Amino acid sequence: MSLRNELLGVAANYDDDFWAYKPADFTAEEEVGDTAWQRGELDFVRSRAHAARAIAPLSPALEALIDHVWKSAQPNNSPPGPISLSASRGPNQPGAAQAGVYKAVPVTKSAAFDMQKNKAPHLKTGFARDWDLQRDIPRVQAYTFRGDTRNPKAIKNASGFSPPITRTDAYYMETVIYKQFSQYLHSKMGTSISYADFQKCVNRSMDPALRTVFVHYGIWRACVEHEALHLGRMLAEEALKGFISTSRAMTIAKGFAKANGWVYVLFLNGGYVVPKKETTAWTTIFGEQEIAMPGPVPWEAIVGFRQTDGKKKFTGPVFLRDTFDASESEAARQCYELLSGKKQ
User: What is the residue range of 12's domain?
Assistant: First the structure.
């Protein structure tokens, strides 16, 4: 049966693109939002309409990294050359200061890093060296769920969802970028930096004493951008990564929407299905019903949404994009029922 029978009428629509539907009655079984998943592995909502089409290619940069461009230098197996001493050697010079011991410091890390690195060995290296593991993780065309405190108007004005690595707003600069860089600087150099001095570095209006710190910031930022699309590192810490994190579990999406937030249905063309917990090196302690999309998810790929109430349950109409039911009737029905509170 077509979902069109559940339409509430033009006056209830969100705008011309999203029509309002009366929710199906799953009130008795609806679960409260929660950011943890305690049950078995969930399947994802499959896209039948896109199944015959090729999955969107990865960016050339990510393809290159997965193909081992980012790897340790190979040992030089050629025989050593002769040693020659200069005939016009100058006077002896004082010995150079002893170089410090190299520290393998991750460019980003979570507050639980010390616990994570003991259970997830891939986090112990300063730089990600295990890009080849990403090749074995399946990519899919699927409809998934994401919770957000912002309303649909704000998401539309932002052109959809953008990954953390692209954020430059003042709040993110202070609470995430500065925090991550300052802990890196302290771990690497034993140096501290105030937020005011950090801003001077970023804006390049600095005194000579900050120039060394600025050089480290430039190096750090380059390293961060190289690791932005490393799925294993993103699972440990989303800060400054290049993925949009979504879930197969509606309760998790409601958990991240929080009270009076919104849950969105996203179409992902090539999202990574994060393996089940404890089944791969990257998911020894991570991986709960997640599908991670490399790069942004534009507004046009959002096909539905519904608001949560103060108790992190759904309230109000179900909104679906006007073309969704006609183009993907099976997926639209599944998403409609889940947005109505159906238990998974």
Answer: 1-50+130-163+242-344
